[in-house]
Task: structure prediction
Amino acid sequence: MHLKRRNFLLLLGSGASAIVASSVPGCDGRKPNLSSTGSSPSPSSSKTGLNLSGIDEIGFRPVSGPMPLPHDPRSPSEQIQAYQAYEVLDELVLPEDFEYEVIATWGDRVGNSRFGYNNDYLSFIETGENLGYLTVNFEYISGRTWMETYSEVLGKSLPFAEVTAAIDTSPINAYALPDGDPLKAKIQQICQEALLDQGLGVITLNRDDRGKWVRQPSQADRRVTGISGLTDECSLKATGPATAVFRKTQGQGYIDGLGDRIVGTFANCAGGTTPWGTVLSAEENFQAQVPEPVFPDGTSAQPSQLPFYMDEKNIYGQGNVFGLAGNKYGWIVEIDPANPNDCGTKHTWLGRYRHEAVGVRVEAGKPIAFYSGCDRRGGHIYKFVSRQSASDPQDKANSQLLADGTLYAAKFQPDGTGTWIPLAPTTPIDPDFPSNIWGNSILLPSPPAGGYIKAEQDYGIKGFKERLKTLGDIYTGTEVEKQGAILIDAHYAANAVGATCAARPEDTEIAPDGSLYISFTSGSPGDSGGPDKRIFKTPTGEPHEYGWIMHLVETDNNPGALSFTWQMMAAGGEPAQGGWGFANPDNILLDPRGNLWMVTDMSTSKMNQVVPSRVDRSGQPIDPSKLSGTFGNNSLWYFPLQGESAGDAYLFAIGPMECEMTGPYFSRDGSSLFLAVQHPGESGGIRRDGAIETREFEMLTPTGEGFRQTRQVPIGSNWPDSQANSSPKPSVVAIYRRDLGSIV
Result:
């Protein structure tokens, strides 16, 4: 699947010389831990990183990961010798001459609440030379580790054992239990704490006399949680056509009786920052907390459709006991960090689906364009275009433009062209055939019963098109209510009109020239769908687990254009197979000098999993998707865009055990890199007494020579405290050069 690295970076660099602000994305009284620091421990294969001739140009000595990379100057035999033994560290590994400090960690006080769990997207809006607001998303809780560490970290207990024993192995519709039921009260207690640890938060930072960023609590510091508005006055607002559905007093499905008032926000993954100083927070995997399916009138499935469940490792259906309406989650939330009274607004014209990030394009005299991807197998790329144009990109009145416009979904053609399909009642029905989709299935809306059906045969699509002609034939109500129902059911409506099923689209990043870069995390199919075989494939015509980066250019560079061109510019995977040495690209960003940075998103279950052989018992090559363990822990990569090093990928950081690093964001002067480290120890929990395993891996050099690697792998995590048997805690850090010079 060889894709020319140099071609990608030269194209990216063509407009990357001048970055604008809008393009840089994706308790209990305890003081925040500002003393935890880390520097540059590097795996044992190369304690100080590789000795590369281009170090002066890229500005740091890359850390050494678990596999040799194409820029390694050593011969294959020397590489094999260097990588035969490798030690994975439970640490945030940085290049020499770099260090980090913990800014905030789970449980720290924020306003009248606490810093949440699994911090994701970060946005740092500087209000002065040494002051600013850091907005943080809190995506979800990692069931096992959250329950294992809750009491120690927060100094109180929850009835985990009692509830687990009471519900045994069967989910329970806690919403239907009588209000006086003791079990319901215990479930409410657990779910309230779990939802409290999700949502988003704002903390104020200032630069101290050392030149480091530290907490400086202010009136702006606050949390908007998964239950905000349930018992306080901090409910969220909504704009756009879906509010007509929210205000219904009767309908086909469940109505919460709150009108267009919304309780909370959760599943807050990546996001974006507007040039007028607000932050966009993307609700992603909401379907784990509330029902996703809706009826043709846009009303929700009953809470009973996603009952509450928990065992020793998992907690699902946290919204069930509170009767949260599923159609109110899966949106983009806008919040002004400087306004302490702002609890957030969900702009329904941006669509309801499993949002990942938001690419923001704002130019004076043109309509606003927001790009986002649906991070599911078979999800789509979407674009919202405002009806009116922006006059001043920095005017906070631009938020009002998000209340009126059109949502489009992308249709990619194999020849490198594409079109934007409006999600409107008049748009014709034209689904793709399952035979064009990896996994041979596509999910379609199912009127009049509601929900969706799985189409697995092409003849089923023909019947669907004969029965239904436009989206207006699927959804019901007044014209405004129909449009609202379409936006509420955006993923399934996009399937119905033939939007291209994609490969888990994650981040959408706007370059200074207005073009778009999209990271696709994985091209493998799953139970809920898969990507289009004609677009997302290897050169040999196979699905690809390790993802891509795409470059998209609008026709005439017009944000409101209805057509575009696209090109797949980079692929994850092993270098010997044409990849760059990383797996599963996630958040991407352009730094203040126009260089590209990227974090990876391998699933916890795949990291460091043994690869004892590359062939099966019959001697056939193992599916490449089964080789994820070779990539080690999740990581942060740097791609220079100019000079002799352009076209190579350099490993800047490796995360602690079983974590995902997310939300990289630079300070305005480029001297500080904020980074979120979420779910350390997600599978192994607390690392007990330095537990470690020896594992074997069949590896390849970049030129394809095979060798066996013995790898030492910690079991669980103690990060960030890094003390024996300490609890792993999601945290946000700031990374610096030791001399506090510019990182870029």
User: Anything to note?
Assistant: Residues 5-44+116-141+197-228+263-289+329-423+497-632+641-648 form one domain. The first strand starts at residue 37 and ends at 38.
